[in-house]
Design brief:
about 20% strand, alpha+beta, 4 strands, about 140 residues, Beta-Lactamase, globular
C-alpha cells in the first residue's frame, strides 16, 4: 500500500488559526477553508461577521488551488483574455475560482492540500491565505 501525504485535521486547524490571526490584524472577517490532497474539504471557519456568500467561494478557492497546484491569484492572472488559461473558470462545473486568496499547501516539495480565503479584498484574502499557508 502506498503512503500518500495529505493535510489532516490537526494541520488544517493550525493553518486556519494562522489565517484567523492575520484576518483579525487586518480587521476584516473572512471564511477560511482547507482541503486535502484530493481537494476534499477538511475544515472551514466563518469568522463572526464574514459574508455567508463567501463560504462557497473560500471552499472553491481551496479546491482550485489544489486542482491546479497554483495560487488562485496566479491562475486569475493567466485567465485573462489572451492568457493561457482564459475561460478556465468555466471548467469543473464552475467551481474554479480565479480570484486571489487560494494557495497550495506544500510539505517539502509536495502539494498536500490547499487553503482558500474569501471575504475581504483580493489583497486581504491573499495576505490571509499566505499567512495561513505559512503555518503548515
Amino acid at each position: 500500500m502506498r503512503d500518500i501525504k495529505t493535510v489532516d485535521l490537526e494541520d488544517a486547524r493550525r493553518v486556519i488559526a494562522a489565517g484567523e490571526k492575520k484576518a483579525e490584524a487586518q480587521g476584516q472577517p473572512v471564511n477560511i477553508a482547507v482541503v486535502d490532497v484530493g481537494g476534499v474539504l477538511v475544515a472551514h471557519v466563518r469568522q463572526d461577521g464574514a459574508w455567508i456568500g463567501s463560504v462557497d467561494v473560500a471552499i472553491n478557492k481551496a479546491f482550485s488551488a489544489r486542482a491546479f497546484d497554483v495560487s488562485t491569484q496566479a491562475l486569475g492572472e493567466n485567465a485573462q483574455p489572451g492568457g493561457q488559461f482564459y475561460g478556465i473558470q468555466d471548467s469543473n462545473d464552475g467551481r474554479v475560482m480565479i480570484f486571489a486568496g487560494g494557495m497550495p499547501l506544500v510539505s517539502g516539495e509536495v502539494v498536500v492540500g490547499a487553503v482558500g480565503v474569501s471575504g475581504g479584498t483580493g489583497e486581504q484574502d491573499q495576505a490571509v491565505a499566505q499567512a495561513a499557508a505559512g503555518a503548515l
